[in-house]
Every structure is written in C-alpha cells, then in structure tokens.
Write a structure and sequence with these properties.
This protein is of the alpha+beta class and 497 residues long. The chain folds into 4 domains: 7-153, 2-Layer Sandwich (Methyltransferase, Cobalt-precorrin-4 Transmethylase, Domain 2); 171-244, no CATH class; 247-416, Heat Shock Protein 90, CATH 3.30.565; 419-497, Arc Repressor Mutant, subunit A (Orthogonal Bundle). Helix content is 37%, strand content 20%. It has 16 helices and 22 strands. Strands 14-13-17-18-20-19 form a 6-stranded mixed sheet, with helices on one face. A hairpin with a 5-residue loop joins β11 (216-218) and β12. The radius of gyration is 28 Å and the shape is globular.
Length: 497
C-alpha cells in the first residue's frame, strides 16, 4: 500500500480485508453473524446484545453482523438492506435501537462495496462495563441460537469475571476535583520521569498527557476525575482516597523467626502509589535482607540472601496480577528467618505450574501495560524465567508457586543443603530446572540436575531417583522416548509441536 494513500482509502481497504477475514471462518463464531436481507428490528436488537456480550467473553474488542453474506457457505451475495432509510415506530432504525440498548455502546452501520457486491457491516463494541441488554434483557450467542443470558448462569458469571477488572481500572477514585487538587494528590512528576517524557511547561500539557494514559479524565465544569488506575499507580498517599484504594497499599512485615507468631521486627505500609513508590519499596526490603559474603576474583563483597532480581519481579507480578475486586486486602511481602513470602489477592489466571511458560496475562491490562512501559516489570512475560534462573544461580531451593484460598503465594527459600531438602522440594527443583532449560532451547539431564542441586558426580544415582519421581508425578517427560539419553522436558512440552 503506497505511502500517499488517503486515510479514507486506507479505512475502506481495512474494512474489505476485515470482511474477507470474517468470511474465511469455517463456521460462524460467537461474535460474528451473517444475514442476507433479514431486517427485523427486534432480531437486530437481540443480536447487538448477544454479539456484544459474546465478544467480551471471547476477548474480542468488537463483534460483527454482516448483511449480504450467505450463512451456509459465506458467499458474498449482496443485500437490499438499507439501515439508513429503515424506520421503526416512526423513528430511524439506528436511533430506535440506540434507545433500547443499555449500557450505551457506539455500534455503527457501514455500507460496503465488496468487490462489486453491496454489503452492510454492523460493528458492535464488546460489552464495556456490564452485560449489554436490549429492551432490558441481556442475550448471548450460543451456536446459531440467541437465548437470554440469564438462562445460562455459568456464562453470566464468566462474563462478569471479564467485566469486573475493566470496571475497576476505569472506575473513579476521586471526582470533581480542581486542577490544583489533582496535582496535589498525584505524583505527576514521577509519571513523566518513569515514562521518559519531558515535563510540560504548562498545566494544559500535563493534563493532556495524564488523560491520554487514563490517569485522569475530564469532568464537568472544568473539573477533573482521578481514575482508579491513576490513584493506585501515582498517589502521593493512597490513604487520601477511598478505603477500596487505600487497602491496596503494599504491606511489608519482617519477623524475627520462622513463624507469624514470632515478634514483628519491621513493618511498613507503602503509602505511595505502586509506580511512584516501587523503587523505594525494593530498596527498603533490600536493606533489611541478610547478606552472604561472596569472594570474587579479587574482592570480597556482600550479596543479599535472595536475588534482587527475583524479589523485584515477584513483587511487580503481585502488583499487576492481583484481583482488584477482592476488597479489604492488597499485596503482602513477609520476611521470615528462613524464607520470604509474597502474596497477592485473587485466583491465578493460569495454573501455578504454568507460570514459567505461559504467555503474559493480567486482570489489569492497563495497569500492566503502563508498568511495562515504565520498565517496572517484564515486557514479554519473562519475569518468572528470571526468577528461577537467579534462584538456580544462587543455589537456592526452588521457589514454591501456589494458590492459598483466594490468593496466590510465592515462597523464596533461604540457602539449604541438598541433604536438608524434602523429596517434594527436590522434585519441584527438577521440574523447574527442566522447564527453564526447555524455554532456553535445551534439555535437562542427570548431569545438569546434579549441577543445579549441588550433587557430586559419584552420587549420580540421587539425581536419577529425583528424575524418576518427577516422571512418576508426570511433571517431566522424556524428550525422546526411544533415546533415553536425549534428556527430559516439562510435561507441557509434550503437547507442543
């Protein structure tokens, strides 16, 4: 496509390509529907509701209804439907529909000249904040049927689960504030510093950039709102906002023993927003960690007991993956005499066993995207890889990723000799080592596992026992069953091509 093409022509070309992609599906998917000439207003209204809700469930930004495409074979046959001239109850069709669709969504009808055939495309945004209803009833698309959403409670629950994070991030932490009040509550200088943007020399420029990243939004009468996203990231003091925001502060607690019943020797509730206070929190924790003496080639140096990169990545993960809709609690970091535990509220989106290899997913996409942009967490979801790699380099026991109640907990263990590790800990280290090797394009074998666990070569049988236990637990698989010396891979590698 030439550089001189007009924006209008580019839009037309994109629309034609979109229709071609939709026609290429072997069957109608839940968020796409084809019609020829059916222009029943009641049916169109139900389909707007059903397709919008289905799009949100399918993680699609839009749903589509196309007239002029035959349902059976998706052939482009053309249509006589003209939405711009259709009337219902003495009202233009589009207005009549808009009055009956709640919450209001910006659906649009678009006539298309598709390779000489006239089509009509209805573009429907995915449900934004609550299930989309038509005439006070929400619908859903299941196969070729359009039943009421309330008749399928499992889909209704799944839809709300998709909608709640969206609602939270775009919700309002404070409303109808003057410009001075906004700047007094937010560390806007940290926003510009962390995003690598020069600080504008006027207030209009500051608010333009903050609103672009949805930190604030314009309210009526020349006033402003601070979004939940803006407050939780850049608050000067989270306590200045409602309890639902204030309780999201990161808590740090250090004990003088291995139990929560032991004496608390340090406690800090980080009142700054996550982005504004992140480095300060990491530095504070690092300053409290026990140190080990490391002798290099020429110098002695003190190193923290736990790898700094592991702590940084795990705390960042706890911030961005927490379920913000769980009230009354936020991320918690606890330091014991023999371990560190990092807990965030909410069930994980993927199984803890798959944290290492799964593509990055977050309930809080805007928060995660902005923190990645500010380089406070990993861009490509490699944070857990770095955690496990750094743990192996420090010869520490394998971290434990687990679900406890309605929370995710990660445990980093202090140094422990191989003889002091439990069978479960040894097998967990074997699995994580195999997974880390696999994502690095390598295979685990007896030799690499011995090096990982500090087993001397004359005790190779000990590594063989651990490998057998991991095989029996279906955590690893032979890389090539016909060639035992080919090494081992994690259990999920067997499902990949």
């Amino acid at each position: 496509m030439s550089a001189g093409i007009t924006s209008e022509a580019r839009l037309v070309a994109r629309t034609i390509a979109l229709v071609s992609d939709l026609r290429a599906y072997p069957a109608e998917v839940s968020w796409v529907e084809f019609k020829e000439n059916n222009k029943d207003p009641q049916l169109i209204g139900k389909l707007i509701s059903a397709l919008s809700n289905a799009a949100r469930l399918a993680d699609q930004s839009f749903a589509y209804l196309v007239w002029g495409v035959r349902d059976g074979d998706h052939a482009a046959v053309g249509t006589t439907f003209q939405p711009s001239v259709e009337m219902q109850n003495n009202q233009p069709l589009e207005l009549w529909l808009a009055q009956r669709v709640q919450p209001s969504i910006n659906f649009t009808f678009e006539p298309i000249d598709y390779h000489g055939v006239r089509l009509v495309l209805l573009k429907i945004p995915a449900a934004p904040s609550s299930p989309v209803e038509f005439d006070r009833t929400a619908f859903i698309r299941i196969g070729s049927a359009t039943p009421r959403l309330s008749d399928y409670p499992e889909r209704l629950r799944a839809l709300w689960a998709k909608l709640q994070p969206y609602v939270w991030e775009s919700g309002l932490a404070a409303q109808f504030l003057s410009g001075d009040e906004v700047l007094a509550r937010l560390n806007y200088a940290a926003y510009f510093d962390l995003t690598g943007q020069p600080l504008p020399d006027n207030r209009a420029g500051i608010f333009e950039r903050l609103s672009t990243d949805r930190i604030v939004q314009r309210d009526v009468g020349g006033h402003w709102n601070i979004t939940n996203l803006g407050a939780v990231l850049f608050a000067k003091a989270l306590a200045d906002f409602s309890p639902s925001i204030a309780r999201k502060a990161v808590r740090f607690v250090a004990y003088d023993g291995a139990s929560r019943a032991d004496t608390v020797i340090h406690r800090q509730d980080e009142q700054r927003g996550y982005a504004a206070g992140f480095q300060g929190l990491i530095d504070y924790i690092d300053g409290l960690l026990p140190r080990n003496e490391f002798i290099g080639k020429a110098f002695r140096e003190d190193r923290p007991l736990y790898p700094s990169i592991a702590i940084r990545e795990l705390i960042a993960n706890a911030l961005i993956h927490q379920d913000m809709t769980v009230t009354g609690t936020g991320p918690l970091v606890e330091l014991f005499a023999d371990r560190m535990e990092i807990t965030n509220p909410g069930q994980p989106l993927v199984s803890p066993e798959r944290f290492l290899d799964s593509p990055p997913r977050s309930r809080n996409e805007a928060l995660a995207a902005l923190m990645r942009r500010m380089r406070l967490c990993e861009e490509q979801g490699t944070g857990i890889d770095k955690v496990i790699a750094s743990v192996e380099m420090h010869q520490l026991p394998a971290p434990d990723f687990r679900t406890e109640g309605n929370a995710v907990r990660v445990v980093l263990f202090g140094p422990r000799r191989f003889a002091e590790m439990s069978p479960e800990e040894r097998v967990r280290a074997c699995y994580q080592h195999a997974a880390l090797r696999y994502v690095s394009g390598q295979k685990m074998n007896n030799s690499t596992l011995r090096e990982r666990l500090g087993i001397e070569s004359q005790n190779a049988s000990q590594a063989s026992i651990i490998i057998r236990q991991a095989l029996d637990g279906r955590l690893i698989l032979p890389a090539d069953p016909e060639h035992p010396r080919a090494g081992y891979v994690p259990f999920w590698a067997g499902s990949r091509p």
